[in-house]
Amino acid sequence: MESPVPWEEAPPFPSLPENQVQVWQTALPQTDEQAASFLPLLSPDETERTGRFLVTRSRAAFAGARGTLRLLLGAYLDSDPRQLRFCYNPQGKPALEDHDLCFNLSHSRGLALYAFSRRLPLGVDVECLRPAAASAQIARRFFSPREVAALEDMSPDRHTEAFFTCWTRKEAYLKARGEGLSLGLRRFAVSLDGPARLLDTDEGEAETRRWRLCALSPRPGYVGALCAAAGDWELRCFYR
Ligand SMILES: CC(C)(COP(=O)(O)OP(=O)(O)OC[C@H]1O[C@@H](n2cnc3c(N)ncnc32)[C@H](O)[C@@H]1OP(=O)(O)O)[C@@H](O)C(=O)NCCC(=O)NCCS
Predict the structure, then answer these.
(1) In testing the pocket of ligand 1, which one of 105, 107, 125, 227 has its CB within 8 Å of the most ligand atoms?
(2) Disulfide: which of 54, 115, 133, 227 matches 172 by Cβ 3.0-4.6 Å?
């Protein structure tokens, strides 16, 4: 069985070769004090968005994730993180306005993942394992019939992890395409355990072959997935 790529300590000077996809994980700030050092990095619209979060933990997480994203992009591009400008597709996927470096990020309960490639479209997702959220009712609403059947075949002790594995693989694919939920969650199926695979889509074989999914295991209690355009690339994972 394919095991998730191990996490390495972050290099002091990050660089992103053409043949790599890199994923980083960071713990997110939980309080306004912890988030304070990220605020000067943010653009006016990000600062305004930060102020709109009513829940302290969400506000700190947003500022921490955007700030860290800017620091990592700045390091790769050898640019001032504050000068980077983002634009958004109609479904809200951020991209760099003046560079073709691709990125995506996800956060859940204090943890963030950031994925980067030189040119390959990609999406990343992380979820904290929450047994109460992994109900059969939610699975039937969001998962395809093939995924629901696979989930029902799982032994009860593996149910929560399989549910969130499915969830993150689906989200990573949606986020790589950038279309969000508008794509239709029941129109494609992913594997729920073992190697991460896009199993089928109603757009045919060519679409299935266009993407590569990878399982991410950032820390106990969380699962994640990366989806990027298929190709001869290597995945490296870093923590800091
Ligand atoms: C917005 C969405 C892309 C992801 O939302 P999410 O899982 O709640 O949040 P995540 O933390 O994984 O990702 C959010 C980040 O993705 C990025 N993002 C936003 N819209 C995006 C899009 N259309 N495509 C790719 N990335 C997007 C942003 O950077 C955003 O973070 P930020 O605004 O704080 O910078 C979208 O798929 C969604 O609304 N999902 C709802 C959850 C759901 O029902 N999932 C069903 C899975 S089976």
Answers:
(1) 105
(2) 227
